[in-house]
Task: inverse folding
């Protein structure tokens, strides 16, 4: 077994950019006005979750683990297309309330499943908590119920807006979202799920001279792609949150820097025109 150095040195400028973007977002959260307002708090929490995802991607990539990192990048993409859909609604406040209520439903369903798991193990359950959860599920979320199952049991819808990630990507005002979905949820799906396709190449990797350098180069290339997507998704997400201040000039600067580091054409051609960034 041969060990290669971590990408920290080779890809240092990319990691520095990730850190700078996150630090700026955290500073923006600290300076956000009226954080007690529910809609402001909503945007703050969305941005914090996105920032934490960026930090997780950086931590994984610094150790050369691009495969798990793309799973986190997928989460960031899902958060983005959901916020794009929310922002396109006629009443964003009503949409945020719907989003939050669906989150509460998911919490209650998770608690119900946890209780069922504990009961299956023979552990005692909190009868008052069980009754409270069952009461709320029976009375407070009928708008999230789909057609009942054949046995008459409740079938819950799978998302707050009754659309999956592929549909949200297709509805986005950015035509690249559908292509990005194909990459993240199809081409990179094996990596996110540790499927056989993610393992087979290493299983049959040769031992010829220079194979280590080749593997490092391939890993770095995939890591750079993960950084590019992570930065783009996070910055676009930030711009979708009207209650957290963001500097369009800094966003434009970061995108120029990312393009220069990537060594390709200006990234991306949409939706980062000067007019859109400064809007």
Result:
């Amino acid at each position: 077994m041969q060990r290669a150095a971590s990408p920290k040195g080779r890809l240092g400028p990319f990691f520095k950019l990730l850190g700078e973007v996150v630090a700026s977002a955290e500073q923006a959260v600290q300076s956000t006005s009226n954080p007690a307002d529910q809609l402001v708090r909503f945007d703050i929490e969305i941005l914090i979750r996105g920032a934490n995802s960026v930090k997780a991607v950086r931590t994984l990539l610094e150790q050369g683990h691009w495969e798990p990192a793309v799973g986190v990048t997928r989460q960031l993409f899902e958060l983005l297309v959901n916020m794009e859909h929310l922002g396109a609604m006629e009443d964003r406040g009503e949409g945020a309330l719907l989003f939050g209520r669906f989150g509460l439903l998911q919490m209650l369903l998770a608690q119900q499943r946890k209780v069922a798991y504990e009961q299956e193990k023979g552990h005692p359950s909190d009868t008052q908590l069980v009754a409270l959860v069952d009461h709320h599920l029976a009375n407070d979320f009928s708008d999230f119920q789909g057609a009942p199952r054949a046995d008459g049991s409740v079938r819950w819808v799978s998302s707050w807006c009754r659309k999956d990630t592929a549909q949200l990507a297709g509805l986005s005002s950015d035509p690249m979202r559908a292509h990005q979905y194909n990459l993240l949820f199809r081409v990179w799906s094996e990596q996110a799920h540790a499927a056989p396709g993610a393992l087979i190449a290493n299983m049959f990797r040769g031992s010829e001279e220079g194979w280590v350098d080749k593997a490092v180069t391939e890993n770095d290339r995939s890591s750079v792609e993960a950084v590019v997507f992570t930065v783009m998704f996070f910055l676009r997400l930030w711009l979708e949150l009207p209650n957290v201040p963001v500097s369009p000039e800094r966003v434009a600067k970061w995108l120029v820097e990312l393009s220069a580091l990537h060594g390709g054409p200006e990234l991306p051609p949409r939706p980062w025109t000067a007019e859109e960034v400064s809007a």
